[in-house]
Backbone:
């Protein structure tokens, strides 16, 4: 009977496994370095002073404890599909909803990140071409009207560059994961060259006086709401530098020998990124005083200009551009796989999971994400999704770590399939460290946002982070309920879907 059913089932177009190990390293390190060191490091100097390098080291054990869950899960049969935390949580708990909501909120954060990264890329282009807005206004139809409508934050030029970059990476993502990997690797190698040019000679140019005092604003949090300072105040924002390391899990459906290679790449990629964060921030704060660094929009280019010849500054600036582009390319890749797996599991319409026969990429999901990101850019509404980015990340990591704690006890058959063999006691300790840290960071972030909004005049207040989370959770719940209803009506076997990936292993 099973054979007869198999014969009647039309051939399903699968994702192609063309992403190499180097492409996987370029994905995780490119995502981390792009969204972190070039964005938040300089700004954090205004909060924590020159102690930022120490903060990166303090966060390291928390990140590694959180990464344990991904390494274990990806070494199971679940590690050959995209979906990441959603797949891991739902298969462990045998419940779709919690994993869906966690990744739904993270998907929203990715879409907001697309808008921010692309506009940040546009701002860096102004380093080379300060009159970009006026020049583009002269070329575009209705250019002067657009220039008046988009004077800043983001400006017309930044929006044009942002939109063009999104469409550029959309094409490379569309034509196959092989081309995505080639482009990501090429940009990553240029980024590595820029880091070497900055760090190696920079270590010999450090002035230790710039690190005294190490905690100019104190160790603990102080200051009025919205303007908190102190070493501990900088930790939630600096954690954003590590945002996106879980993106590697979304490559599982397209990586060669995923169960064998990805667990190691997870840990190695994070360790390499940690070393980059520490060394680059050490050079930055050791060469430029933290007050000056915090005011610069081009922090690393400013650092390079202090001790490198003109060509060195240019290389570092190009490296900064590559940091944004590697992160942008990966950030476009990842949410398409999220929608794809939602479609496969019928957490969303089934056509979300459509794969092109020629290029074997989830083209529908790519089109949806790119369209939404461009629309958010030009309407300047990406704050509604970006503002939940930090808290959604903390929630996702916390829930994922909680599922790791439960894994050997409530799903021992799945646990036994893991190729990364760690004792249950170690999994519990690592999970608890991550869960406690994520809970603390989420609570602090929400509390600070509430205090900040309360300190504003009534007419200037907006929606708080917890209100946005509630709104988007309700929206996700409605979509979830509709998709489940449609799936059941069409005879989709939700119970079988929860176990088919690993039950016969």
Residues:
């Amino acid at each position: 009977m099973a054979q007869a059913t198999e014969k009647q089932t039309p051939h399903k177009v699968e994702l192609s496994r063309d992403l190499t190990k180097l492409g996987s390293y370029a994905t995780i390190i490119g995502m981390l370095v792009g969204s972190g060191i070039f964005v938040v490091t300089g700004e954090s100097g205004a909060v924590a002073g020159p102690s930022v390098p120490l903060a990166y080291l303090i966060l390291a054990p928390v990140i590694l404890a959180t990464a344990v869950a991904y390494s274990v899960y990806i070494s199971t049969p679940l590690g050959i599909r995209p979906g990441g935390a959603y797949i891991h949580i739902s298969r462990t708990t045998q419940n779709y909803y919690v994993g869906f909501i966690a990744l739904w909120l993270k998907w929203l954060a990715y879409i907001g990140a697309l808008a921010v990264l692309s506009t940040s890329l546009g701002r860096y282009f102004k380093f080379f071409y300060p009159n970009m807005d006026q020049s583009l206004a002269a070329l575009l139809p209705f250019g002067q009207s657009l220039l008046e409508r988009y004077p800043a934050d983001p400006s017309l030029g930044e929006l044009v560059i942002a939109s063009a970059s999104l469409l550029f990476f959309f094409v490379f993502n569309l034509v196959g994961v092989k081309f995505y990997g080639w482009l990501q690797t090429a940009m990553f190698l240029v980024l590595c060259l820029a880091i070497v040019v900055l760090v190696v000679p920079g270590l010999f140019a450090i002035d230790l006086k710039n690190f005294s005092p190490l905690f100019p604003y104190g160790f603990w949090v102080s200051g009025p709401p919205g303007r908190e300072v102190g070493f501990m105040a900088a930790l939630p924002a600096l954690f954003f530098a590590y945002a996106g390391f879980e993106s590697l899990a979304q490559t599982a459906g397209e990586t060669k020998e995923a169960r064998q290679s990805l667990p190691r790449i997870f840990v190695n990629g994070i360790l390499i990124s940690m070393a980059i964060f520490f060394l680059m921030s050490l050079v930055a704060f050791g060469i430029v005083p933290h007050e000056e660094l915090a005011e610069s929009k081009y922090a690393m280019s400013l650092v390079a200009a202090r001790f490198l010849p003109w060509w060195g500054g240019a290389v570092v600036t190009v490296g900064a551009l590559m940091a944004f582009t590697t992160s942008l390319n990966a950030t476009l890749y990842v949410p398409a796989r999220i929608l794809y797996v939602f479609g496969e599991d019928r957490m969303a319409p089934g056509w979300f999971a459509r794969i092109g026969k020629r290029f074997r990429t989830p083209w529908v999901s790519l089109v949806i994400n790119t369209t939404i990101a461009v629309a958010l850019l030009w309407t300047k509404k990406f704050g509604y999704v970006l503002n939940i980015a930090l808290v959604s990340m903390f929630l996702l990591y916390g829930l994922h770590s909680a599922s790791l704690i439960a894994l050997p006890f409530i799903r021992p058959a799945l646990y036994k399939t893991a190729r990364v063999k760690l004792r249950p006691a170690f999994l519990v300790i690592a999970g608890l460290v991550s869960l406690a840290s994520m809970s603390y960071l989420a609570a602090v972030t929400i509390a600070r946002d509430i205090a900040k909004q309360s300190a504003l005049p009534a007419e200037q207040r907006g929606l708080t982070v917890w209100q946005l989370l509630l709104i988007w959770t309700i929206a996700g719940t409605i979509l979830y309920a509709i998709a489940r209803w449609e799936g059941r009506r069409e005879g989709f076997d939700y119970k079988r879907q929860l176990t088919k990936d690993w039950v016969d292993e």
